[in-house]
Design a protein that fits this description.
Helices cover 47% and strands 19% of the residues. By secondary structure, the protein is an alpha/beta fold. The protein has one domain: Rossmann fold (3-Layer(aba) Sandwich), CATH 3.40.50.1000. Helix 2 runs parallel beside helix 7 and helix 5 packs across helix 6.
Amino acid sequence: MQGNRLLLISRDDLLAVMNSSIGDRAFRLLSTLTRHGFHLLATAPQPNQWTGEHGSPDDALLGPNSVRKRLSDAGGVLGGVYYVRRSMLTQKRNRADALEDILKRYSVEPGATVLLSSKRNWVKAGKKMGLQAQLLHGEVELLEKLLELVEARLEPDT
């Protein structure tokens, strides 16, 4: 997967921007990134119990009126959802283990991975591993970070 990059965005941040006034622009930018070598992966805490019921946050990621559909309509691809185990006593280790697993599965170096999240501890774990991790403070900041990535990715190499 040499030359490709990985973009990790928390599920909750994707859902927040999806329903905001800047959602259309954000999804066009995400689609542009996926067409230009970024693999987009949503991250989410593992649910306490897996159910087959509709109406969960993951329906909004993968269902008929979902993040996946909206990206597809804009010409992009959601590579998947990675569920991070939850545990009160081992959460810090779970975050690090999840990031290591993601990098291994996608064969991507930490420096070629961008993590955008409003979760402070998730960003802290990403930075510690050498990811380009950025803490978000709302949907507008997510849009700004996506625009920066698009501009940087589409500039010709010098």
